[in-house]
Amino acid sequence: MKNFSDYKSWLLGQIDELGKGKIYKLGIVRDRSALCFSQKNRDEGLVMAPREGGFAKPGTLPDGLIFVDGSFLRFRERIVIKKDGSIEWVFYNYHYQRPDDYFFRYDKLPQPHDNPIKEPQQHLHAVREEPRFPTHSTNLVELLDLIKCNFYC
Amino acid sequence: MDNTIRLIQQRVLSQVLHLVLKHPLPYFGEFESTNGRQPQVYIYDFDKEQPLYLVASFSDTLAFYRYDDDLSPNGRLIIVDCEIISSIVLKSTKIKSDHPLPFRVQVSEFDSPISTTGDSKWNLNDLMKDVSPEHLAEGYSDEGLMTREEFDLALKSYETAHGMSSAEFYKKWMHDEIPDEIEFNMWAGLYEFSLEDGLVFKESSSPQLEKTSFTLESTRKLENIIERVGA
Q1: Cβ–Cβ of B186/A93 closer than 8 Å?
Q2: B91 exposed, middle or buried (CB, 10 Å; 0-12, 13-18, 19+)?
Q3: Which of chain A's residues have a Cβ under 8 Å away from the Cβ of B154?
């Protein structure tokens, strides 16, 4: 049966594929050393980058998953591997930001908000914190593909 | 509305005693409730062959929706995932109709939790087939896994950066007194995680594991050196 450790291996492999391997010339991830994992049990865990908190100060390097052009992805996701091998994303925040401060963020709340119109359980922030646009359920790998296709191809 | 559907509505409504949804469905434009209000409670039947989507509002009425090409571009109602029906209690386990139905009504399947998250596209059994051997090498699976000390330091870094304890922050966070920003989302997630029992940490950083910890940049530098040496 697959578990959180397998997910880690798969995820690291996927990220590395973005930086080398088959699409080496289109390598987009410069540094993934801030990526870290915390495990609740065999099947469940937290993935995030970076591990440390604090807003980036002007002039300092970005933190998180760093792309070749200085863009970065700060994120956290909590996943559960089910018995059939399917992956459930309990919640996530994927915040992609470019050097010119353009950003978007996909969020999934662990529980529905009291006001699901104002704050849908799965939503997207685009450039501004509000409004929160309802969106589909996504995940880190799908998002990296989106970033690659839209900003690096 | 079709009389048959009205009849089914009445029959179902009269038999439902209690329904608990773990996560109610957020509002989506594809829904239209019969009374013009957004339904509050939902039941789904995801039978692929004869799909029935049933949306119930328990305040005073019950609304049904079924497979309809007009409902979404894909010909299927757009349902966000992670909607889990925790339980449903009915007077009878199955509803039958005396009339030929335009669609199937079956509620007995709701006795057990139903999850719509089982997307085969994201099944590790299949995904792992594409993982290259280097990512399955011994030691690799520990890469990035935090030790207890690293985890505590990570939490402490947020407290230092924002000048308050995690407990104090979390209290404010829960009362919506903290901006919805990635920084605070991450802090809240880390703190929530820290409150859970039985977390698994890497015991200590071994030299062997540190050796396998690399960045793509360092890998490329190494590749460049090797290339130059080779030339």
Answers
A1: yes
A2: exposed
A3: 36, 51-53
Rounded to a whole number of angstroms, the distance from the CA of B128 to the nearest CA of chain A is 6
Q: Does ipTM come in above 0.90? A: no
Task: Tell me the CA distances in angstroms from B85 to A21, A77, B41, B43, B149, one per residue in order.
Answer: 43, 23, 10, 8, 39
Rounded Cα–Cα distance for residues A142 and B189 (Å)? 21
Across the interface, which of B120, B145, B216 has its CB nearest the CB of A16?
Answer: B216
Question: What pLDDT tens digit does each residue of chain A (153 aa) get?
Answer: 788 988 988 888 888 877 664 444 457 888 888 999 998 888 899 999 998 887 766 566 778 999 988 899 999 999 999 888 899 999 999 999 998 889 999 999 988 888 888 888 999 999 988 899 999 889 999 999 899 888 887
According to DSSP, the β-strands at B84-90 and A103-108 are unpaired
Mutation to test the B interface, candidates A23, A86, A91, most B Cβ within 10 Å: A86
CA atoms within 13 A on the CB side of B131: 21
